[in-house]
Specification:
The complex is a heterodimer of chains A (346) and B (808). Chain A contains 13 helices and 9 strands. Chain A is an alpha+beta fold. Chain A has 2 domains: 89 residues, no CATH class; 231 residues, BirA Bifunctional Protein, domain 2 (2-Layer Sandwich), CATH 3.30.930. In chain A, the strands form 2 sheets. A 7-stranded mixed β-sheet of chain A has the order 1-4-5-9-8-7-6, with helices on both faces. Chain A is elongated. Chain B is α+β, with helices and mostly antiparallel strands and 808 residues long. Chain B has 6 domains: 69 residues, Phenylalanyl-tRNA Synthetase, Chain B, domain 1 (2-Layer Sandwich); 110 residues, Nucleic acid-binding proteins (OB fold (Dihydrolipoamide Acetyltransferase, E2P), Beta Barrel); 212 residues, Phenylalanyl-tRNA Synthetase, Chain B, domain 3; 71 residues, Phenylalanyl-tRNA Synthetase, Chain B, domain 1 (2-Layer Sandwich); 202 residues, BirA Bifunctional Protein, domain 2 (2-Layer Sandwich); 79 residues, 2-Layer Sandwich (Alpha-Beta Plaits), CATH 3.30.70.380. Helix content of chain B is 25%, strand content 26%. In chain B, the strands form 10 sheets. In chain B, strands 25-28-29-33-32-31-30 form a 7-stranded mixed β-sheet, sandwiched between helices. In chain B, strands 5-4-3-6-9 form a 5-stranded antiparallel β-sheet, with no helix packed on it. Chain B has a 5-stranded mixed β-sheet with strand order 11-14-17-18-19, with no helix packed on it. The N and C termini of chain B lie far apart (95 Å). The chains are: A alpha+beta (346), B alpha+beta (808). At the A-B interface, helix 5, strand 1, helix 7, strand 4 and strand 5 of A face helix 2, helix 8, helix 11, helix 13 and helix 14 of B.
Chain lengths: 346, 808
Amino acid sequence: MLDKIESLYASFQNEITPLDKQADVLNLKASYIGKKGSLAEVLKGLKDATPEERKAIGPRSNEIKKNIEQAIVDKLKDLEVKEINEKLEKNKIDISLRDSLMENGLQAAGTHPVHQIQRKIEDIFLSMGFEVLDGPHVEDEFHNFEALNIPETHPARDMQDTFWFADKKHLLRTHTSTIQIRGMEERKPPFAFVGPGKVFRCERTDTTHEMVFHQLEGMMVGKGINTGHLIYFMKTLLKEIFKKDMEVRLRPGYFPFVEPGFELDIRWKKPDPKDESAKHSGWLELLPCGMVHPNVLRAGGVDPDEYTGFAFGLGLDRLVMVNYQIEDIRHLHRGDLRFNEQFSFF
Amino acid sequence: MLISLNWIKDFVKLPEIGIHDIANDFTMKTAEVEGVEKRNVHLTKIKTAKILSHKKHPEADKLNLVTFDYGSGTAEVVCGAPNVRDGLVVAYAPIGVTLPNGLTLEPKKIRGVLSEGMLCSESELGLGEGSKGIMELPEDTKLGMTMTEYLDAKEDYIIDVDNKSLTHRPDLWGMFGIAREFSAIYDSPLCTPFSSDWQKKLEGLFTKDKSPITPKVEKDCSGKAFWGLSVDGVKVEDSPQWMQDRLNAVGLRPINNIVDISNYVMMELGMPLHIYDRELIKDNTIHVKLSGKEQTFTTLDEMERKVLPTDTVICDSEKPLVLAGIMGGANSGVNDNTSKVFIEVANWQAEEVRKTSVRLGLRTDSSSRYEKSLDSQLTYRTLLRTLELIKELCPEAQVIGKAEYDGDDLNAEKPLEITTSSKYLNNILGTSLSFEEIKKILTNLDFQVSEEKETFNILVPSYRSTKDIEGQHDIAEEVGRIVGYDNIPVKSPMLGVNPVGLTPYKQVERKVQDFMALKANALEVMSYPLVGKKLLEKASWDNLNEEMVLINALSTDADRMRPSLIPSLLEMAAINTKNFNSYRFFEWGRAYLPETKNFVNERNILSVAFFNKECTPFLSLLNVVEDFLNYMKLPAKFLGEGELKGENPLMPLSWRGKHPYEYQDIFIRGKALGVVSSVHPIVLRDFKIKGHLSIAQFDLTDFTKTEIKTKESYKPLAKFPAAQFDCTVLVDKGQQAADVLSIQKKLKIKDLKSMKIVQVYPLNETQNSVTVRFSYEDPEKTLEPEVIKSYEDQCVKNLESAGFPLKS
């Protein structure tokens, strides 16, 4: 009898495979495991079997019945999937046509590369407790020069090629250092802030010179702020920008609004160990900085006998150009989207 | 500024380290070195030689084959010089030498004859113009000497220092001052030859005679100090080779011994001076005064200069001789026949020299030094050093009388005294230097330091206090730079921790940038805040912003602040229509409007451009704008053409670029702060833009000053189902479909949740069918069918009475 059941199961398996209609599958199910199905027929003979035979047949026949039920369920699902897929095929889309492959005009979007680096630096300083300030582009002589320790007769005024308005009192700010003064006027020490923005120089434009460019000013004032602290923040800034420890050097630099004043250079090219002169080259002048001149603190309403501070200025365009190896600074203001799209977010 | 290392070594012993290390130390401790060059290398390989015989080149008439003896052998070269003759002593450059003009001598056949190097002219040796042909050396010159030995021109290194980094250091515009820096950098004693014995020795040359010239300096002019000395019996000729070599080394052209001495002393001591031919000074009068009238004056360089009444000039009894501190005149300079001279060593007010030199565009070695504020105390030393060199080069020269002076009382000037403490210096530098270390650095820099108690006093050398050194912060720099900033310990300050947030300005800026990039799919651009009249006119922009014109613009294309971002936007749009069929860009920039009280009113503007070649992007832009205002939490009203009372400052009514239909004013918090418009084809044509351009402008200045505050609350979700009702009405084609929605205001249905347009369908020539969907919702209960029915009736009635009949 066991043999009969086994051969029944085998013939079920043979029969179900070629079926491709739901009704046929259901009929097959009825013919094998329905109330009057062949399995039930065979099992009618169970009453004549010996107790030993029953022990063997009972579990096996249950198992086969379960298998058949499962096979039927699977088969029905398969048939249904096949049916749906046929419909899906009719509505098939061409998944190769991604926007980026289509001539759909310009799809790129994103912010200007100078603003991208500016925000990155703003965020670095925000994370270290610096506010982010701004100021007017059209300035007066006081904020651009006098307050920054550059009196009218100072040769440094020659160094800053200034755009003047007809009243000869107003001008376009030549540096973001004006933000130092405005920031100090509104605050009591201790404080720390950065101030990014546009600056203007009356300078013929060429591939490396612009009449409009961007600086980021920074200032920290408090009790006992010293040169070592300045270097700490500068090194931290560079490490965050370049995501590695940068080799830097600090050398004397002359700016009327700081004393002592420094130029901070970063190592930009690896020196050639064979070349003696190369040991001292490969430096990129990146940011002027220094301890705020007492006259500047005073102009901002801060008592220099009580407080000290540092300040720095960073050229953002320079950083962008170096970072992306841009050959012509004038691209930044030209608005040719073939340039801007290269810095797009997506 | 070029520094000759050999010259420096006259005054200080340098350590045995490479030139690049020396240059680097100078960069790190004093001022930036821009380059280092080795000088006179070729002269070590060029030898003196005597011509033994010469004969014509077989192939060329103008060339000679010259055989000569160079001490350790003989050689033959092909030579084209006209002055070749037997017995002539010449300079021979063998194969392998690289001459200053860059030519490296290689074994080479000239017209078939091999030449073993060349005989050189002065100019080929880098020794100036010289005479025609090869250089002729005296007959008794020892053969086989190197030119280095012969010329006493040693190999040298020239260090080029960035002038800008020396702006504040008038004392570093001479070799002696530079030597003092090296003395401090290397803690190596400065050898100063200018002792009191030296002074006495030179004063011994003065005579009892009455000085022929006694200078007179008027108080109201820029003269601060003026020394004059008359010397007779000078002989004008070429300077000795060593002096010419040094002047060449620092970039000055040798002229004659007297002029060269004045340049040499200036390069050595940093103080300019002037030597006159005394016989050209009328009536032996030297009068320093304001010009008093406008006149023309011919300077040494043969250029006519306009002198203003307020310029200081040095005059004789009838005419100006020198433009004070800037340049001498062509009428009184030293010439080949000069034998009697008058030496002037003076000091001038820096600002006056600078003003005149800037005005005349005449920057000389002299004016660029004076404008940095020189020290009057150094004038006498400079005069004596000049005299010393004149006696050295013209031993027959005789002083007549003595050094005569007029000007400020030099003894009245007291040295600047600064009080500081080790604590202050260490506090500002972040160092822990001992008093002894500080004292050593300052002493090497010629400061006098008193003993330390709590504080100590420093006497500043007069040449450092003309402007540079004012207070103890300046002392901190002196100490810091010599210690080396790289040797300062780096540490974070210990500060209180406070929260920092973004200012309203930054919040707006970031939201604008993020939204425009991520949601509006636009690229950010930057245009110049400066524009020109031409662009404004091209954009039909009537406000030319004449009040915001710069007086020193670089070009008329960028000579004023922009009154609006629209003209620059159009210019950029034009650039890009060539390359793209569609694009979107935005700028977050400023417009600058004149204002009486504050001179200028800077407005923070968001400017957006959408372009499409085929169809108008106006509606896409309008949708973006609506989203933008929601994102900014700025509730706004959109007003169509003619709905706004008064003018929108962002886009004047008269602007020709305004579109007659695709136009909306945006009213935010009681002000017209935005506008969206397509640009009229007539303006597009002026920019050669072919396609459709829609633009938006927002003035967000108000919201950059105070944070945008909003009330936001939550409404519980509806518990009962909403009922919807669609109906289709007829709308004339001349009307806008959304006009249908205007009936909402008239409906008195508290349960009305929304009314939206589902579909617009063109029905016939004159009418559209517009399907609208009403949605009703009661938060408390499910709406009864009869209530819904009454709502529906009310809606239909209102639609019909508003002129929108139901479609049958």
